[in-house]
Design a protein that fits this description.
mainly alpha; 9 helices
């Protein structure tokens, strides 16, 4: 039970940092929507999605022994962005980048403090690294509504806008595809990144 709670707490704060990073980047680029909505905060009450932040993490942990979930998406207005060409790309990239940075920081701490004994601090740090790497990698899958699809369409010509709208209408379906089909091919990259960050 303690491991379940620990995993879910780490997941919740990791997805919150992910969403805050989207909002902060949008704010830097000229759109204050997230700030005006009070979303540029680490206060969980501002970000928790009852299904994605509580129900799904518990269910996925019980089914797979690993928690997965999401926070309420941060909304931004693309018309307010100073850089119309690369604004969406940078905002989409900010979320996964924040998770990679967290994983790198705690991975580096593990690399230089691990003395062969699995202390509570090392144990928690490993969970933080694994969960954040997983969030970053999963969100980079180029299927709607994941960040990877936003990165992809932001670099494609504008004539693909109609295709994008059609695909995004089926976002829940694509999330299931990402989880049940694509993920099994993407997952092997996580241990590789874990070794780079932690040394083992």
């Amino acid at each position: 039970m303690l491991i379940t709670i620990l995993s879910i707490v780490i997941l919740i704060f990791s997805v919150i940092v992910h969403e805050v990073s989207h909002g902060y980047m949008a704010d830097v680029l000229g759109d204050p929507t997230a700030r005006l909505q009070g979303r540029l905060t680490l206060n969980p009450l501002k970000h928790i999605d009852p299904v994605g932040s509580i129900v799904v993490p518990i269910m996925t942990y019980l089914l797979t022994s690993f928690s997965f979930g999401w926070a309420k998406p941060v909304i931004y207005n693309p018309y307010n962005l100073k850089n119309k060409r690369w604004g969406e790309f940078l905002i989409a990239l900010a979320g996964p980048a924040s998770n990679i940075i967290i994983a790198f920081i705690f991975g580096t701490i593990i690399r230089f403090t691990f003395d062969g004994s699995m202390t509570p601090f090392i144990y928690i740090s490993m969970y933080i690294v694994i969960i954040n790497i997983t969030l970053a990698v999963f969100n980079l899958i180029p299927l709607p509504p994941l960040d990877g699809s936003k990165l992809l369409f932001s670099v494609l010509p504008q004539q693909y806008g109609r295709v994008r709208m059609t695909l995004e209408a089926y976002s829940p379906f694509f999330v299931m595809i990402a989880l049940l089909i694509v993920w099994q091919f993407v997952y092997p990259v996580i241990p590789f990144i874990l070794r780079i960050f932690t040394g083992f």
